[in-house]
Queue: 2 jobs
Job 1
Amino acid sequence: MKSLYVNSHYAVNQTVHASVLSDDQCREIVSSAIEVLERTGADVFDEKALKLFADNGCWVEGNRVRIPSGLTEWAINTAPSRVVLADRDGKRKLFLEGSNSYYGPGPTNTYFIDPFTSERRKPLKEDKVNVAKVCDALPNIDYVMDLGTASNVTANLADVHAFQAMLLNTTKPIVHWGFGIEQYEDIVNMCIAIAGSLEKLQQAPFIALYSESSPPGLHSSEGIGKAMWVAEKGLPLVYTPCVMAGATAPATMAGTLVQSLAESFIGLVASQLIRKGTPFILGGVIAIMDMKSTILSYGSAEFHLLQGAMANLGQYMKIPVFGTAGCTDAKTLDGQAAIESSLSIMMAASMGANLVHDVGYTEYGATGSLFQVVLGDEIIGYVKRIMRGIEVTDETLALDIIDNVGPGGHFLGEMHTMQNFKKETWFPTLIDRTRYDEWKMKGGLSMGDRIKAKTQDIINQHQPKQLCADVVEKINQIVAGAEAREAAKAKK
């Protein structure tokens, strides 16, 4: 007979972490991706990368590169299982390893929801300032991305201007992109102006740079070239495909995961050959093409399933994962947006995705919305409490308190209640739990109304920590130099 008694002299904090894939399934998918690179290979359009692969035993025919299994396995084992991002002040904040999850917005949206008029319009540089301020103020948003490509600056420097705007308006880590290596140099030079040197930035990086392949199996000079440049600098690198089941990947979920891994592995092998131990983060947006609308769906059940599976694969290989959550196919802040955001954030947390981006994506990624970011912050807080689980100790079992109160009493006046209710209970800032009369007295605001009011209040009131004037001047000079460079190109 099983004992019903509990040994309460140790703490058990059971969380709701789960898995989509078993270890055996992970092994098959990883092995299949390695086989794809050895049998089929990928097309690489960068001379430096082609030479790097050829010099290290790969089979190179024209632009087609086939990678021996042993080399891909070596790169998987060489990549660090832990990547740390610091804040702008050099404090190490994000520990990308195991099942640790951190959340931030996404980049490069074509449109942006004006936080004061709700108009869907082209993003502006001023919006990057507001994105940084809102993210800086929200406790559950851990890092910053630009949430839209600014349309009112020099087109080829939209990446540089976005980074400047974010860097000056948040202390949180930034994950960013660039059109090319020149822009990457501008961005990293701005970081060095704060850190003091490249070596100090390497020791406490407050930036991760990402580039993308072009599925299926195409790696442009811009994409792989930027990844190699980041590896040379010894900075954290995200090499992320954006695959669509049924379009740029097989229609099956397992086949889509194989295609996605094979895309990332090209960047992984190149980065580790350039600099062994380069901090590498794999994964990205893995979704389906909706065969009715042809969109890449950010809210489908399959999207959530694939994101969870990629987190499992990262944990199996001990490589941090670039997850995706807090996003929606909805066009506005409505019930669909809340459902899809909630499910994706819960999936990312329960599966243990690490660097989770795209909080704030609406309209299947076409539009960035700070309203969606603020909603996401609330959901993340909710989910974090669930993931914290239930602590079982002598203190929390509360046998003496139950005995003292006895049948018919209450626990409101107990010191045990005062000492524990705040740390046990998550208190929302947007979800309404008031009684009906109080809710009506306060204006009877909907969730959407409260989200909009909170967003506008942060933009109007929050004051991010400012950099010293001489550092700001250095950053501004770097941007001015980039503008002069582009102007000179235009004259030729």
Job 2
Amino acid sequence: MVLLDGKVVIVTGGGHGIGKAYCLGIAREGGAAVVADIDEEAAHGVAKAIQDSGGRAMATHVDVANSASCQEMARKTLDAYGKIDGLVNNAAIFMSVPAERGSFQTITEAEWDRIMAVNVKGLWLCSKAVVPAMQRQKQGSVVNISSNMAFNGGLGMMHYVTSKAAVVGFSRVLARELGPDNIRVNTLAPGSTMSEEKPTEDALKNYERSASTRILKRIEQPEDLVGSALYLLSDLSTFVTGQVILVNGGAVLH
């Protein structure tokens, strides 16, 4: 069974880490992956890798915090494929674009605003750009990426944790608004995931420490998220909307 045969799916932040894994998985399952990233060179690299392996993909630049850029992403996708079946709102400030750390007293106002512009406003702007195409065809799936940290808190990361908690509320409201159009909206919440290809020694120790707190005691890899994302994007989940799926090896039970 090919889960996404003929479907066109946009993945923001698709040039790196977990986003890259989503794109590769979409292509493996017969879908066309639209690799959208602020790092255009990385996006082209992922798209080329998919094309070289016989899959369908295209790359496009997007700054999710910019409305015109999001609209251009949607337009280019429609020009290339004529439709949009799925959107994975994955782009975020955290790893590939690092977030500053600090207590709630030391986080700067500029850093707070930067996180919210990408991690929260970005979901809204991308959805505004892409959803009208789904509404015209009366079907589609939006997968918004939250985080394990929205459910267990995270010291030194209040701005990030707050932004990822907002993803859950955003998704639930959007699910209710788009239900009449047969468009599903769900949230996927990863745990601490080794999204860098070559993590530093300190980063590796942090991943190992996270692994020790899980029911399944190993480091989470980007590929661990792909199956759940494909399920939510595919016709296997046609009656699933407004839900949150935590993929964290049992670090948090929700």
